């Protein structure tokens, strides 16, 4: 049965008499150049072959971008899992690094493959982020335009209703004006009638003014015509 990766850890101390390793300062430029070369060999924007139906599933995003584990099985996700393992998570950083390198070497997994996998996944996530951002922006633009159209329609309908309300108000005002003018003429007409009747009655039954008064209960007609002054 194959051994677990954490059983492959060995001491990283150099035997006495071996030449010292290159210092981290000397290794940094070479490592940076190596990473740059790896990054340059990978497409800057991976193509998504199939749509992603569940954006919250990173596994689905990686599958859509056709990012799969190499034959040796070591991806950056597996390395991240190893680094969080209870077996080495509390160890110093350089020891954890050496332990992972030992496991990679034992499995025949080049570190370059792991770095390539990491870059591919990162670029896939960045590309999918841009796709989602564009989708959100397009939706916002579409809905903003739709809202503007709805607002324009509301403004048009509101203007039409305001016009109808104003027309109703104007119609009432014209009718009141006509009615008040008629009432003045009515009062003048009633006054003529009342004046004529006043010669023949002691209590004039004719109403004048507005509102009209109720007719008198009874009236007494003079037996004799009233003499004019």
What is the topological layout?
Layout: H1 24-40, H2 58-64, H3 76-83, H4 93-107, H5 111-197
Any overview of this molecule?
The protein is mostly helical and 229 residues long. It contains five helices and no strands. The longest helix has 87 residues, at 111-197. The chain is rod-shaped, with a radius of gyration of 50 Å. The chain starts with 23 loop residues before the first helix and ends in a 32-residue tail after the last helix.
Brief descriptors of the model:
229 residues; mainly alpha; 5 helices; disordered C terminus
Mean pLDDT: 81
Distance between the termini: 146 Å
Instruction: Specify the structural class.
Output: mainly alpha
Largest sheet: none
- From the structure provided, what is the oligomeric state, counting identical versus distinct chains? single chain
What is the overall number of helices? 5
Task: Flag low-confidence runs.
Answer: 8-20, 212-229
Shape: rod-shaped
How much is the radius of gyration in Å? 50 Å
Residues in β-strands, percent: under 5%
Total strands: 0
Helix content: 55-70%
Order of helices and strands: HHHHH
How would you briefly describe this protein structure?
This protein is mainly α.
